[in-house]
Design a protein that fits this description.
The protein folds into two domains: about 5-65 and about 140-320, Aminopeptidase (3-Layer(aba) Sandwich), CATH 3.40.630; about 70-135, Elongation Factor Tu (Ef-tu), domain 3. Helix content is about 25%, strand content about 25%. The chain contains seven helices and 19 strands. The protein has helices spanning about 5-10, 20-35, 85-90, 150-165, 240-250, 265-270, 300-315; strands at about 40, 45-50, 55-60, 65-70, 75-80, 95, 100-105, 120-125, 135, 140, 145-150, 175-180, 200-210, 225-230, 230, 235, 255-260, 280-285, 295-300. The strands form four sheets. An eight-stranded mixed sheet has the order 1-2-12-3-13-18-14-17, covered by helices on one side. A six-stranded antiparallel beta barrel has the order 4-5-8-7-6-9. It starts with a helix and ends in an 8-residue tail after the last helix.
Length: about 325
């Protein structure tokens, strides 16, 4: 399958946080088809590769959604988000439930202009139950230059990993961690939480673009290639890993962007962090409208990221801490 075919197949799965089974199953089948060993830890993270690799690659499994948590007045229901999606983005969006039924998320009549999730109600077309899981009813679709849809960026990163297995024999020195909990607020975990002792780590993440007018200087833009975060969680990027990835991009003549995250949001404070001192570099896929039901990525950025990671895995013996 092609990268885009893998992406659309993964993006179409009903797999919000807490129910990543379908994605894990797809990844596990792909791993086993290539003869790789795959295991799932107690937190639901899927790990493919040895426990002490030269390089660990973290890939998010997340998909945004919501859950019904209380019955409101007049047949309306209270909902809470799963994943980082703003209430102002969710308002008036069509949604559907994994056990059937559809609804519209609407603000309360006296909701303030600065909407919060406690002001949103689900107006359902059929009876609901507490703890019903819902997803945005915006099926992923191709655009002329990329893809658009709910959580399409995280799924694109998983598709890139699957494509790496198609074009490479996975080195014994590389481990992939498909992390199921990277959107939860808080500080995350380091690799020890996954039973790993890598020498170095690449974290793949979607990152918000800043290319809507008026543009901010230095922000990510669509179509300019994948990005390297020069700082993440108030930590400077590892200088040796940064230089290695820069060299690989130059040798392969790949476009890329350097940027510094400017906002402390869930997007930047919740990925698995490295408290154990493992050298880490964050590699990102630029995403417009990140965390909304209408995330947008460009094919050229995804293909460049795939080629970049292929070069990194091929040259893992040259990685600075190998």
């Amino acid at each position: 399958m092609s990268l885009l075919a893998d992406l659309l197949a993964l993006a179409a799965l009903d797999a919000p946080p807490g129910r990543e089974d379908a994605v894990r199953d797809a990844v596990r089948r792909a791993a086993e088809a290539h003869g790789f060993s795959a295991r799932t830890d107690a937190l639901g993270n899927l790990i493919v590769g040895p426990d002490e690799p030269r390089l660990a690659v973290f890939v998010p499994l997340d998909e945004i959604g919501f859950v019904v948590h209380a019955q409101g007045e007049g047949g309306f229901w209270r909902v809470a988000p799963l994943g980082p999606v703003a209430a102002r983005v969710a308002a008036y969006q069509p949604v559907r439930f994994l056990d059937g039924g559809h609804a519209l998320l609407v603000p309360e009549a006296d909701a303030p202009e600065a909407l919060r999730w406690e002001h949103l109600l689900a107006d359902a077309t059929s009876p609901l139950t507490l703890a019903a899981w819902g997803v945005w009813d915006t099926a992923p679709r191709m655009t002329h230059d990329g893809a658009l849809g709910k959580a399409v960026a995280s799924r694109a990163l998983v598709a890139i990993a699957l494509q790496l297995w198609e074009v490479l024999s996975l080195p014994d020195e590389v481990t992939f961690v498909f992390a199921a909990r990277t959107w939860t607020p808080g500080h995350g975990e380091g690799p020890a939480a996954y039973g790993l002792r890598p020498r170095q780590m690449l974290r793949l993440r979607p990152a918000p673009t800043q290319d809507r007018p008026p543009r901010r200087p230095g922000g990510l833009t669509l179509g300019s290639g994948p990005g390297l975060a020069l700082r993440d969680e108030n930590r400077l990027a590892d200088a040796r890993l940064l230089a290695w990835m820069e060299d690989l991009a130059r040798e392969a003549e790949l476009p890329w962007q350097a940027f510094v995250p400017t906002e402390r949001t869930w997007v930047w404070t919740s990925a698995p962090r490295v408290a154990e001192g493992v050298p880490t570099l964050t590699v990102v896929l630029p995403t417009r409208y990140l965390t909304s039901p209408y995330e947008r990525i460009m094919t050229s950025d995804a293909e460049a990221l795939l080629a970049w990671l292929k070069a990194a895995l091929t040259a893992v013996a040259r990685a600075p801490y190998s």
